[in-house]
Design a protein that fits this description.
With 341 residues, the chain is α+β, with helices and mostly antiparallel strands. The protein has 8 helices and 7 strands; from the N terminus they run ααααβαββββαβαβα. Helices cover 40% and strands 16% of the residues. A hairpin with a 2-residue loop joins strand 3 (134-143) and strand 4 (146-158). The longest helix is centred in the N-terminal third of the chain and has 31 residues, at 67-97.
């Protein structure tokens, strides 16, 4: 007891300057403090949430492995639909080209009627107005394995006054393909033809002197300019519409005379014709050996595509095979491995 009393006095003297009582010390000691076990529980909970989120991401990533297979399967299916569409279009064109040609003397009153005549053969008669020809290109053509650049020449076929069977309104005719050199020569000839001829007329007897008057008893009568006889031409063509250029084809520039694709209303305006003028492609095969150009279009080219239905079938098999391969690899990646015995 005396020792306990002495200890109590020592503590009282020690704590008194800091105004700290024994009750405060006891209360401080009695407060709960975090334990190591509680810290471990908190860390375990956080780790478990990270594991769960990681497993969810792994689940989504596994499903993404099947995306290439679904995409390639869709491309193969689209090739099937495209093949069927082209087969229907080819049958439609063949049936239209097999019909009897139409003797064309007029022009429909609306664009819808022109569209209904597309791929029909028509027989026109008139004369070509070479001064209003338009060259569309460049267009390449393979001749005996050699590729040569050239143009399509489109010329208005105008009616003749003395022929009742001639067209009553002009028709735009794609006469066929010509090489670049032919185009240059043709333009030079047109330029020379447009130049006025300076014809010098002299009076008889003035230049030759008075001593030569007896060679002429009369003044020569002026020769009357006789108009050339224009022979109408017959054109067998197929009604067509404007081309649909790709994004890589430049825009036409009518002001400079550069035409990169066939735009029927634009070419008609450039030639001074109505926009609803009939446009046909010449398919005559009776080209004269002395006049090898222009080369008319082959009628078989109208029932051909750059990608034919058989090509679409080959693409379908390719895409389906690729889809099966990538899907098989995805299944092998997702399927859990068997435990080793």
């Amino acid at each position: 007891m005396p020792m306990a009393a002495s200890v109590s006095k020592i503590l009282s003297r020690t704590l008194k300057p800091q105004n700290v009582s024994l009750a405060t010390v006891a209360g401080t000691i009695s407060k709960p403090i975090p334990t190591f076990g509680r810290t471990l529980c908190t860390g375990a909970t956080s780790f478990q949430s990270q594991v769960n989120s990681g497993s969810e991401r792994d689940g989504w990533s596994k499903w993404l492995l099947f995306a290439p297979g679904v995409f390639t399967f869709g491309l193969g299916t689209w090739q099937i639909f495209r093949r069927n569409e082209k087969m229907q279009m080819l049958d439609y064109r063949k049936n239209r080209l097999d019909m009897e040609p139409i003797a064309w003397t007029g022009s429909p009153s609306s664009g819808e009627e022109l569209n209904s005549l597309e791929f029909r053969r028509v027989l026109c008669e008139g004369t070509f107005d070479e001064s209003r020809s338009v060259f569309v290109g460049p267009r390449s053509r393979s001749i005996s394995g050699v590729t040569e650049n050239g143009y399509f020449i489109i010329t208005p076929l105008v009616p003749t006054t003395n022929n009742s069977r001639s067209v009553q309104l002009p028709v735009l005719v794609n006469r066929g393909w010509v090489p670049r050199s032919w185009r240059v020569k043709h333009l030079e000839e047109l330029g020379d033809a447009e130049k006025p001829e300076n014809i010098r007329t002299t009076e008889v007897g003035k230049e030759s002197g008075s001593s030569s008057w007896w060679f002429w008893s009369k003044k020569p009568e002026p020769i009357k300019n006789q108009e050339p006889v224009i022979t109408p031409v017959k054109v067998l063509g197929v009604v067509r519409g404007s081309e649909k250029p790709s994004i890589f084809v430049p825009s036409n520039d009518p002001s400079s005379g550069q035409w990169f694709y066939v735009d029927v209303p634009g070419i008609a305006r450039a030639c001074g014709l109505p926009e609803d003028t009939l446009y046909i492609e010449d398919i005559n095969e009776n080209a004269s050996p002395s006049l090898p150009y222009p080369v008319p279009k082959d009628v078989n080219s109208l029932i051909r595509y750059s990608v034919m239905p058989q090509d679409h079938m080959n693409y379908t098999l390719t895409w389906y095979s690729l889809s099966a391969a990538v899907t098989f690899m995805a299944i092998k990646r997702v399927k859990p491995r068997k435990a080793r015995r």
